[in-house]
Each structure stands twice: as C-alpha cells, then as structure tokens.
Write a structure and sequence with these properties.
With 204 residues, this protein is of the alpha/beta class. The chain folds into 2 domains: 109 residues, 2-Layer Sandwich (Nucleotidyltransferase, domain 5); 85 residues, no CATH class. Helices cover 44% and strands 18% of the residues. It is built from 8 helices and 7 strands, in the order βββαβαβαααααββα. One of its GO terms (molecular function) is transposase activity. This is Transposase. Pfam families: DEDD_Tnp_IS110, Transposase_20.
Length: 204
C-alpha cells in the first residue's frame, strides 16, 4: 500500500477532501454519516498524515472520529495553510483548492494531534492524583473520602508550599493592623476549604 496524504477543508456543513497521490477529490457532509463515509474511503490506505485547519470548532467532531479510528491527525492554524498555498502559487481560494493545498502540506507538517496531547495530560494528571492520594492516606485519620475531597477542592496540592496551601485553605494566620485592631488572626474562609476542613475534623 502506498502512503496516503489527506487534506480536508472543513466548513460548518461540508468537508472538501483531497487524497494524494490518488488524486481523489470528495465533498461530504460534515455530519456523523459524512465522517463514516470518509473512513470508508480511507479504508485500505496507509494514511501517513491527515491535515485540517482549526475552524472554530467545526473540525472537533471529525477529529475525534479520526483519532478514534487510529488515523494520524494534524490540526494547524489557517494562516499557516494560506502562507503555504501562496508559496505554491495557489492564489485562488476555493474549498477543493484548499483541500489540495492541505494534502500537499500534510507531507511536510506533522504536528502532534491536540486530542492525543490532551489524553497524555489526562493520564499524567491521573497518575499524579493517584500518587497524591496515596500520600494523603498515609496520614493518620485520612481515608479515601477525605483524600478525594482534598484532591477535588484543593487541586493545587503538590504544586504549592505548605504555607501557600494553608493560606489558600483559609487556615493561615494573617496580620490585622487596621485602626484599633492589631495582631494576628485566623479566619476560615467560605468556599474552597470548607469540605476538607469538615472531613479533617474526623477520621473516615
């Protein structure tokens, strides 16, 4: 199977598609049915890269479908595509021409897919939360419920110092030197810290 480069010009209602080197040009609806048709057309091809532009969100559903199908997807800024088109001498701008330009560009631009980056970040965050949870539950009196509450209400745990976390949770003393009031005071602030404070008062 020859390597295949795919350019897709995404609009709200339609997808203009160019598949190289097969010179296949398609126009499909930007719907679930259209996405399924595109996958059917690409079946049997070894897709090296599939390039599309960021179009204010119209491309997101398609990207999810392509990524789930295991296809390499690259999303780029439209300005980069226009500059590339001008470098190729493609002054006219139509959906089929734009799709062809994107297909050619797919051979030289291989940025990581945002969806894959988001997945890696989510996995790393999950691992971090697991490690923090184990550390928290190693403290006497803190069980799964308290640890989960702390992670939910104080996601900054592990990233800030003890003093910063105490201040954020409303547990740190602060100076009050205004008028006749002077000295250090404690105040429990509403909101963020309340659930962890309540849980922290009794083991679970």
């Amino acid at each position: 199977m020859s390597l295949t480069l795919v350019g897709i010009d995404v609009a709200k209602a339609t997808l203009a598609i160019c598949v190289l080197p097969h010179q296949l040009h398609l126009t499909l609806p930007n719907t679930s049915a259209g996405h399924a048709q595109l996958l059917a057309h690409l079946k049997g091809h070894s897709v090296d890269n599939l390039l599309l532009e960021a179009t204010g969100g119209y491309e997101r559903a398609l990207m999810r479908v392509l990524s789930k199908a295991g296809l390499p997807v690259t999303r780029i800024n439209p300005r980069r595509a226009r500059a590339f088109a001008e470098a190729l001498g493609k002054i006219a701008k139509t959906d089929p021409i734009d799709a062809q330009v994107l297909a050619h560009m797919a051979g030289v631009v291989k940025a990581p897919c945002i969806l894959k980056i988001d997945k890696v970040i989510a996995q790393a965050q999950g691992q971090l939360d697991d490690a923090l949870g184990r550390s928290l539950m190693a403290v006497a009196g803190i069980g799964q419920v308290t640890a989960a509450s702390l992670l939910a209400y104080l996601p900054e745990l592990g990233r800030l110092t003890r003093k910063q976390i105490a201040a954020l949770a409303g547990l740190a003393p602060y100076n009050v030197d205004s008028g006749v009031r002077q000295g250090r005071h404690h105040r429990l602030h509403a909101g963020t810290a309340h659930p962890p404070q309540r849980h922290g008062q009794r083991p679970n």
